[in-house]
Design brief:
Radius of gyration: 15 Å
Largest sheet: 3 strands, antiparallel
Number of helices: 6
Number of strands: 3
Distance between the termini: 22 Å
Order of helices and strands: HHEHHEEHH
Shape: globular
CATH architecture: Orthogonal Bundle
């Protein structure tokens, strides 16, 4: 049985979802603006936004015909903290052969 930790990292650890969260860190954006900024295919963006909403990492409000997305304050704090650690360990993460092998499906 999968526990909440697995679900958390599936949601939060996805590259595109993390990029979306970082983009929403300083501003509210509609899907079209996110798509343009991040260059994510519309169907993938919709899927990722739905996941982030379901997991309660972001909120949405309607403005006319647009849906405006906003990161929750506690999620923003978490993204900022994770970003600090990414920067701190960037060199080691990029050099890690285990991660490279996993990326290539070798493990």
């Amino acid at each position: 049985m999968t526990d909440a930790t697995d679900f958390f990292f599936d949601a939060f650890g996805n590259r595109n979802r993390f990029r979306i969260l970082k983009s929403l860190g300083n501003k509210e954006l509609c899907a079209g603006e996110l798509q343009k900024e991040l260059m994510i295919e519309q169907t993938n963006l919709s899927h990722d936004l739905k996941c982030l909403l379901n997991c309660q990492f972001i909120t949405v409000r309607k403005s006319g015909r647009k849906r405006i997305y906003k990161i929750k304050p506690e999620t923003k704090e978490l993204v900022e903290e994770v970003s600090k650690h990414i920067k701190k360990y960037e060199l080691y993460l990029k050099k890690c052969n285990i991660i490279k092998e996993e990326e290539n499906g070798e493990i």
